[in-house]
Design brief:
The chain has 447 residues and is mainly alpha-helical. Helix content is 77%, strand content 0%.
């Protein structure tokens, strides 16, 4: 048995069949379900705590910016860490440290509401979250068989959607009752449960040996990030997906701000009404999570992903121009349906075409590149909306999505099964793995 096998207590590789009978995935899914709920609590609790500490909306924005910068910076090396370490152990460490930091916050906060403490906590937790999330995506391929990936990702996304609905509601009750710092401590407790559940999960052995070192500092730099970028560039479907998703993220991250401004400022509705609309939008995510596997299998990747872009164009345009709350809520749900369907489709494609030994670095590079456009887009969109009005920017955003769709139909993304496309350089590594040469990532895509 390999050294990696000795460290993890490897399970046998899962086979096709009923996903509910997969013990390791079920434990993993249940543990992450509670963790997702805790993370959704933090989405509301963290801004509330920032406002409590500073009384400034600008400082609230600074907390969000710190989290974004820390996540993007960590993304440049997170994939290297995940591909060179035991993935299960990495997730347990990230969970344990986050649990300790967040559970320690309430007593520290009681000693004084220091903004610097909040900033430092935000940066560290965001960095750990990035490493955990990369390991989380990479670990799924060691829990289920290839033909179960879409179903597994759909179930995980469905849990995320439910948590996104319940988390902010629970955070509001806890923050109002005992304070926002205790709401964050609850999030910390869910990380502790997640770490405990991972102790009972066994990941299957990787299909090919992972590399164990790099040749000097230049080799290390190449291994950390560039190898993931190169694999994305060499694979025609991933290259197109990364480019178009970068453009799409430029718009979608700021879409929530447009919704908030439209409902509260333009239509003069209160926060409770906005909360109901956000909750209803979560139903779209749940529907997409339930149906993504079937849709991907019946109509193919191209229809799912490019169709999602069209739905985003429609929903953004209508949300920003309609004065009917019912229509806005329906379109918000449509928007979340499209975002979730596109997300499940792209995640599954990346897992199918990427060799196990590169999956962490490819995921990290993929996320870092396309997420980097989000903060810039959010700033541009909100500034433009302030000057020209939400309806005009919403229509411009819809037209922008139509442009992305038009470009997409001339790329490999239009095909039903882009995972079958050949990669021009299937042996991309800084140091060749031990043993026989690695096979093309396409050879295992349908096993």
């Amino acid at each position: 048995m390999s050294r990696h096998g000795e460290e993890t207590g490897l399970a046998t590789r899962p086979t096709s069949g009923n996903l509910w009978k997969n013990r390791n995935f079920t434990i993993f899914w249940l543990g992450q379900s509670l963790s997702v709920l805790g993370g959704s609590i933090s989405v509301l609790a963290l801004p509330l705590l920032a406002l409590e500490a500073t009384g400034s909306i600008v400082q609230m924005g600074a907390v969000t910016a710190i989290a974004g910068v820390a996540g993007i910076a960590t993304g440049t090396f997170a994939g290297y860490v995940v591909d060179r370490t035991d993935r299960r152990r990495t997730m347990i460490i990230c969970d344990a440290v986050r649990a300790f930091l967040l559970c320690a916050l309430p007593p520290l906060w009681a000693l004084g509401h220091h903004a610097w403490l909040l900033y430092a906590l935000t940066a560290v937790v965001a960095a750990l979250k990035t490493i955990f999330d990369v390991a989380y995506v990479a670990a799924v391929v060691n829990l289920v068989d290839t033909d179960q990936l879409t179903s597994a990702n759909s179930r995980l996304q469905g849990t995320f959607a439910v948590g996104s609905i319940l988390g902010p509601v629970l955070a509001g009750f806890v923050a109002a009752g005992v304070g926002a710092s205790w709401a964050l401590a609850i999030d910390g407790a869910t990380f502790a449960v997640s770490a405990l559940s991972l102790l009972f999960v066994r990941l299957a052995a990787p299909k090919e040996p992972r590399e164990t070192g790099a040749d000097g500092s230049a080799g290390l730099l190449r291994e950390v990030f560039a190898v993931g970028l190169r694999f994305i560039w060499e694979h025609p479907a991933l290259r197109s997906l990364t480019a178009l998703l970068t453009l799409l993220t430029f718009l979608t991250l700021g879409a929530t701000d447009l919704l908030i401004f439209r409902v509260q400022h333009d239509l003069g509705r209160d926060s409770a009404t906005l909360g109901y609309i956000v909750a209803i939008s979560g139903l779209g995510s749940i529907l997409a999570a339930v149906t993504a596997g079937t849709l991907r299998r019946v109509v193919g990747f191209g229809t799912c992903w490019l169709g999602s872009v069209l739905l985003i164009a429609l929903s953004v345009s209508v949300i920003c121009t309609s004065r009917s709350l019912i229509v806005i809520a329906a379109m918000a749900s449509t928007f979340m349906f499209a975002i979730t369907l596109a997300g499940v489709s792209s995640m599954t494609l990346r897992q199918q075409v990427t060799p196990d030994r590169l999956l962490g670095r490819v995921t990290s590079a993929f996320w870092t590149v396309h997420n980097a456009s989000g903060p810039v887009g959010a700033a541009v969109i909100t500034l433009a909306a302030d000057r020209y009005g939400v309806p005009a920017i919403g229509l411009a955003g819809g037209a922008f999505c139509l442009l992305i769709f038009a470009i997409g139909i001339f790329t490999p993304l239009r095909t039903a099964r882009p995972e079958e496309l050949a990669c021009r350089a299937p042996h991309i590594t800084g140091t060749p793995p031990e043993g026989p040469p690695a096979s093309s990532p396409l050879e295992d895509s349908d096993k």
